[in-house]
Amino acid sequence: MNQVRTNSVASPLQVRTNSVASPNQLRCKSEPTPLQLRTNSVATPNQLRCNSEPSPLQLRTKSVATPNQLRTNSVATPNKIRTKSEQMKIITVIILSLNLLQIHAQENPKNTEWMDFLEELYMTEDADPASIEQLYDDLSYISERPFNLRTVTRKELERLPFLSSIQIENLLYYVYRFDLVDIYELKNVKSLDFVTINLLLPFVYVGEAKKTPLNLKNTLPHVKHDVILRTGYTLQQKAGYKKSTEEDKAARPNKYYLGNPYYMSLRYGFRTNDDIQFGFAGEKDAGESFWNKHHKGFDHYTFNLNLKNRGILEDLHIGDYRLSFGQGLAMNTNFIMGKTTFITNIAQMNEGIKRHATTDENNYFSGAAASLKINNLQFTCFGSHRLHDANADSLTVFSFKNDGYNRTLNDMEKRNSATVNTGGGHIRWRTESVNIGLTAVYYSFAGKQLNPKRQPYNIFYLRAKDFFNTGINYGMHGKWFAFQGETAIDRNSKFATVNNLLLNPSSLFDLAISYRSYARDYNAFYARAFSESSTVSNESGFYFGWKIYLSTCWELSGYIDCFKFPWFKYGIDSPSEGSESVQKMTFKPNDKWELQARHKYKSKSKNKNKDYNEGSETFVKPYYQDQWQFRITTDLNNCLQLKTRVDYSRYTFLEILEKGWFISETLSWSPKYKFHIDACAGYYDTGGYNTRISVYEKSLLNAFSFPSFYGEGFRMYMVVRWNVSMRASVCMKIGNTRYFDRTTISSDLEAIEGRDKTDISCLLKCNF
Prior knowledge:
Structural class: mainly beta
Helix content: 10-25%
Number of helices: 13
Number of strands: 34
């Protein structure tokens, strides 16, 4: 017991615990710097027991609500404002008043910096809202059922997208070598930096390493049920809901929505210690019918039954599920990281089968999938039969409809008009430091021919009745490096490859290098991988990213990505190239303040039409985008947090110059555990759609909101959550956008006459 362990381990005087100590339990007189946290030293028992300032690991908990509380996001209806000058005065008063508030209340021990991580992911161009929402749901689920660090597996840690393969390797090595005593030993793990540790805290704990055998006697007492009911409504009437005669509706059926203006969803799930899970969900979007001659019940249903870790059976899914193998060149319906300042996470790691538990109507399979593990070998097989909305006839599928809406007769005619049958498998051999896998997937369109209408940019698109892809993925990692990649081929012998190298030579900086080359005629129906485009084809690129810890308070991160398109793209009628760079500087002098500055520059090409007396000619010219973001986060005390954000955007294309900006103030207030409020007020003024600004908004539990604003207007929202009891919570959001530059909002069936749009949404969650 007196022997000193190298590289960390708390002393024997530390008290072992089965859960994470609260921030009030471990206090110390002095505060270790972020550089100290990235070393392999161990806090002394006296440091852990002293009674003043919390350690940096504790301080990043920020005294905020639990992840469940933070998902309480909604909105207050603003009073009617007569002039723009009055609105600007109100904004100024609100911001000055909020910065003077000092309110004292109890401390809340949960860390929610992972929400900022999601916001960073959404700032990538062409980010898929459904994928981000799915990731949000996955992380929310894990935060409610955190991993025990004494028994955690590599596969479980790979479910956390902010952990790199190097960090996972070093964390597992530390757990294997030492008898983990306390959660705060994470600071002794090599390559776990200050930011990553705080992202990790809500998802892990230290407890007894024990496994309950699966039988009826042990299972029934541990069954837990969750029910979530959600609804939403826009107060102003949209054109699609206007009253009309039956004759008019019969004459113009696609000028009216078939259903009412309410959004509704129901989700139910039960679990038994994560060994058995069942989930069910139904959803009806606003405008879709619930019960009439066109449709009965919810518009979309999903369910999943999942059994885990029973002998050699590692994972079994029946119902709806998602798949990801390798880097996603042959198969991936999961989330893909993309280009962000979290540069060490560019490689795809979350492989295998995952349950589909959200209301996303795309990117999933229906059928069965199973994974078997024998020593270092893992075998996965899957089969799926799915109906898709599409523009199709009896012989041909022209295009797939992916918006998920079935609100008009025209939508109903496309509903479930195409079928995709999928089957395949994956085999992987994996040791502690090396892995190699082979993926094979076959899919057909139930006898129909997939044949998009030919355009210059889609000449090389997939056109066939059936198709297949194979890919080989590989990887090697150590304590300071990780190499991962995949090379895939389609039925026509066209190739795609992506290879990533991550380096952590010092605790002071990280590097990431990636090269990708996707043939212009490579096709994979289920591919989703690291790229500039939304498709894995017609692209090559080189990416270089970095993260540097300049001092105890300063962190610099960023990347440069250069890419080429060897063939036409949509809106680009020639081969083209471009580049993108992002730099982010973060200054955090203490636990109460954080300042962040971010700049993004992008150069790309697009078509420009020039008219002549005898016709017109199309030229391909470059455009340039600059986006700046400044953010100040202040924790005034244990229950009140303020976030001031300023965005500026500039767009240049030939003689066109557009500018736009957005300023907002967000307040998060938790006067007590049972009550939480988030409120925001902001003003924006942009030259047009090219300088639109996207802003993350707090929303309801299990919901994600990231609207874009352009033109000129004022935005306010409020989210209120009330934890009625340990088993029930109620959440409400109300938000209003007032437009100064238009008298009609949106167009077609979504058009609203007036300057205001007000949305209300409510959620009820019960668990028992």
